[in-house]
Amino acid sequence: MLEELYIENLAVIEKACISFRNAFHVFTGETGAGKSILIHGIQAVLGQRVSKDWVRTGCQRATVTALFTNLQEDVIKLIENMGLSCEERQITLTREIRADGGSIGRINGKTASVSALREIGTLLISIHGQHDNQILLNPEHHLQVLDEFGGDASFLQAYQDSFRELQSVARELGKLKREEQNRKQRTAILQKQISEIGALNPKPNEEEDLENALMQAENSEQIISGLSNASGFLSADEGVADLVENAMQQLRDIEDVYPHTSELMERLNAVLIEVKDIADELSGMADSINLDEEKLQNMRNRYHAIRVAEKQFFCDFEQLLSMYENAQTELDSMHSDSERIQTLQAQKEHLLNDVTEKAHELSNYREQTAQKFVERVTEELRFLDMPNVVLSVAQEKGKLTIQGMDSVTFLISANKGETPKPISKIASGGELSRIMLALKSVIADRDSIPTLIFDEIDTGVSGKAAQKIGIKLREISRSRQVLCVTHLSQIAVMADTHYMIEKHDENNRTVTNVHLLDFDGRVQEIARIMGGENPSDLMLENARMELKKVAESEVNTNGIS
Questions:
Q1: DSSP 3-state assignment of 4?
Q2: Phi/psi class of residue 32: alpha, beta or left (left: φ > 0; alpha: ψ in -120 to 50)?
Q3: Do β-strands 481-485 and 451-455 pair in parallel, antiparallel, or remain unpaired?
Q4: Per-residue model confidence as pLDDT tens digits over 263-282
Q5: How distant is the alpha carbon of residue 433 from its chain centre?
Q6: 280 to each of 217, 236, 244, 362, 486, how far by Cα in Å?
Q7: In a 10 Å sphere around its CB, with 0-12 CB exposed, 13-18 middle and 19+ buried, how is residue 466 labelled?
C-alpha cells in the first residue's frame, strides 16, 4: 500500500508529508485549494507526464516521493527483474520536476527511467478521475472493460499470438506478390542475358588472347621476316656462328705456344652451341606462322561478337562473365521466391483458420463474461441508488482485428419501461459517475492493484446516491486502500481518515497545507461542506451525528461478523 507521500515545491504546496493506512481516506477542501495538485503529485511518481508549470514559482525543482510497503509478489518480482532490491518488502519512488522542463526518476534513491516508474506504478495504484467517464462515452473502450472484468486473458492472448503471426505471414506474402510483376520483368532480362551470353560461351581471358592472336596474324609478314633475318644473321655464311668458329680457330693455332686460352675456348664453344640453337628456334618459329585466311577471319568474327556483347550489356569482358554467373544465381533465387509464395499462401490459409477458430472461442468467452458482467454491475448500480436500471451488452461479430472479431457496446436504461440505449446517448453526469464506480468495484475484485484513487467521482451526484457511493467506497476499502477527493459530505463521513487541503496567504505567497483532521476537525469540515462557511450549530450537530452513526455502524458490523 501507499504508506507515505512527501511533496515539496509542487505548485502551491510548499511542503507536505502525508501518511496513509490500509483504509478509506478522503481529501476535502474549498475549490482551488490544491486537491488536484495532490493527484498530480501521485501521478508524477507513477511515471505519468509532468509539466514544468507544476514547479512552485521561484523554485528550481519540485520533488515528490512515495513510500510503498507490504509489496505483493508480482511487484517484488518486477523490481528484482530491473536489477533492484526491495528490502522489507518496501520501495520508494521519487520524481524530481525541474523548472527548465526536465525530470528525473528514482527508485530506492537510484536513478531510474520514467518508463520504469510507470511500469511499477501500474501494479501499485489505479487512479480514476472525471475524465475516465470518457471510457463509458466511447464504445471503443467497452470491449477492454469487458475483458478486464473477465479476468482470464488466456483466450485473448492465444488469439493475439496467432493473429500477429498471421499478420506477419500476410505482410511477407503481400510483399512478394507486389514484387511479382517486377520479378517477371526482371526474369525476362535475366533470361535474355543467360541466353545471349550463354550462346556466346565466353572463356576466361579469351578477349585478351584473341587480341594478341589477331595482332600477330595481322602483322605476320613482318614477324616472319624479322624471325628469318634474325636466324640468317646467326647461321648464314659469314654470320655470327662462322665468326665465332673463326675466332676459335685462331685460338687453336696459338694453343701450343699460349695455353692460357683454354677456358676461353670452352666459353666460345658454349656460345657457338647457343647461337646455333637460337638460329634453329627462330627459323622454326618463322615456319610455324600460318597465314590461313579462314582461321584469321574466324578470330576476327569471334572478337567482334565479344565486343558487340560488351556494348549490348554495357560492360567489359570480365563483367560479362560475372553477369552470366549472377544472372543464373538470381534466376534460381526467383524460383525459390515462387516456391516461398506457395508455402506462405498455404501457411496463411492455415493460420486464418486457426485465428478464426480462436476468435470464435474468444467471442464465446466474452458472451459468457457479458452475462456475469451484467449481473454484477446491475447489482452494484442498484445499490448505488439506480433501482430500475437495466444493463445489457450488445455484442456484434465483424472482421478480425487485433482485439478479436467482436465489437461491444454497453446499453443502459435508468428508468422503468425505457428500452436500453447506448450509455453515451442517455446517461447523465451523476449516472456516469455511478456506472464507473460500479465498473471499478467489480473489476477491482479481479485484479491485484492494492491502492485505488478516486478523484472527484461525485460529479452530478447528491443525496441518497452520494451516500451509497460513500458506502461503496468504504466497502471497497476493506480489501483495498482507497483515497478519494470529494466535495460531498455523504462521502466524507464514510472515511476512516480525513485530510483537509487548505489554502492561505503567507508573506504575499499562496501556500497550501494538508491537515489530518481529528474528530472535532472532521465535524467542522463536514458541516462546512453541508452548509458553507461559518456553519450553524445545527449543521455541526448534524455532522457530529453522521460521523457517530458511521462509527456505530462499523462497530455493529464487526460485532456481527
A1: strand
A2: left
A3: parallel
A4: 999 999 999 999 999 989 99
A5: 35
A6: 22, 11, 17, 99, 122
A7: buried
How far is Cα 450 from Cα 21, in angstroms, rounded to an integer? 12
Q: Cell numbers of 199, please?
A: 550462346
In whole angstroms, give the CA distance from residue 261 to residue 239: 23
Give the model confidence (pLDDT) of 25-56 as tens digits.
999 988 776 778 888 899 999 999 998 999 99
Q: How far apart are CA 367 and CA 465, in angstroms?
A: 31
Amino acid at 543: A
With 0-12 CB in 10 A as exposed, 13-18 as middle and 19+ as buried, what is 45?
A: buried
- Prediction pTM value: 0.66
Residues 6+ apart with CB under 8 A from 495: 23, 24, 25, 26, 474, 484
Residue of 20, 104, 9, 112 whose CA lies nearest to 67: 20
Q: Is 499 helix (H, G, I), strand (E, B) or coil?
A: strand
Cell of 141: 473502450
DSSP string, 282-337: HHHHHHH----HHHHHHHHHHHHHHHHHHHHTT--HHHHHHHHHHHHHHHHHHHHH
Quick one: which of 156, 155, 422, 202 has its CA closest to 321?
Answer: 202
The tens digit of pLDDT for each residue in 348-398 reads 999 999 999 999 999 999 999 999 999 999 999 998 888 888 999 999 999
Q: Cα–Cα–Cα angle for 77, 66, 508, nearest 5°?
A: 165
**Residue 97: what are its φ and ψ, rounded to 5°?**
-110, 120
Burial class (CB in 10 A: 0-12, 13-18, 19+), 228: middle
Q: Where are the alpha helices (DSSP H) in 427-536?
A: 429-444, 463-476, 489-492, 519-531
| Residue 196 CB burial class (10 angstroms; 0-12, 13-18, ≥19) | middle
| 198, 327 Cβ separation under 8 angstroms | no
> What is the β-pairing status of strands 91-98 and 103-107?
antiparallel
Distances (CA, A) of 335 to 174, 179, 195, 488: 17, 13, 17, 75
Residue type, 210: L
**All cell numbers assigned to 312:** 549490348
Closest CA to 385 of 283, 294, 289, 458: 458
Task: Please state, as a whole number, how many other Cβ atoms lie within 10 Å of the Cβ of residue 344.
Answer: 19
